[in-house]
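Quick one:
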Amino acid sequence: MERQDDVFLLADVPLASRFLLGSAGYPSPQVLREAIAAAGTEVVTLSLKRQLSDAGQLASGAGSFVQIVRDSGARLLPNTAGCRTAREAVTLAHMARELYGTHWIKLEVVGDEHTLQPDPWELVEAACELVREGFEVFPYCTDDLVTCQRLLDAGCRVLMPWGAPIGSGQGLLNPWALRTLRERLPDATLIVDAGIGRPSHAAQAMELGYDAVLLNSAVAQAADPVGMAAAFRHAIEAGRLGWRSGLLAPQPMAVPSTPVWDRPLELP
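Output:
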């Protein structure tokens, strides 16, 4: 359980859950509905490009993705997945604000088709413009410190560095870089996004002091998405509580856990 003195503020909104969930690729709308409940999430991402590809899903009917999220009580976080330029992402962000009535936007601008790595130049350009236009921008970025600093300079308060290429399930490929971000950007809200494949990966991210975790494929593509959503929920809570409680520092040699006398035990 989240400690009462450990409040999570996401863009000034207090949340009880540090687990953000994606909505793509679930076997059925009902499974998505149950997974959101099992995760305990209060923020669900939604791809506008995917919604536009199926006009029926933009309706407000009970089976639409939008309505499923709204019925759960979670906040919508539309994203610009699939965009290749800053201009395309800015245009899509404005459409999302009009359609969904939120100024929150998860900003994605892809620079490489093989790794789906974000383009840092286009990302910063789009972030600067969207912040000026009143958006709360959540940029999906790499773990590069300088890029993250530029995004903060642009006015972003939340950063979403990847753990590994999106959908790869490889976990945290560069813990050193992620740890460096946490140490160098202590006031930023940092959320590991992409590459998470197992609950242990999510716990590791939280043990590094990250504020939250966002994932999709590891739940949506599991044999039991609802059970996996619950597993991630507990892992994220455990990782956060472990970090708050003070993790044991690694040692280069054995350290006895039980005190010993400095002389042999003398028996009568």
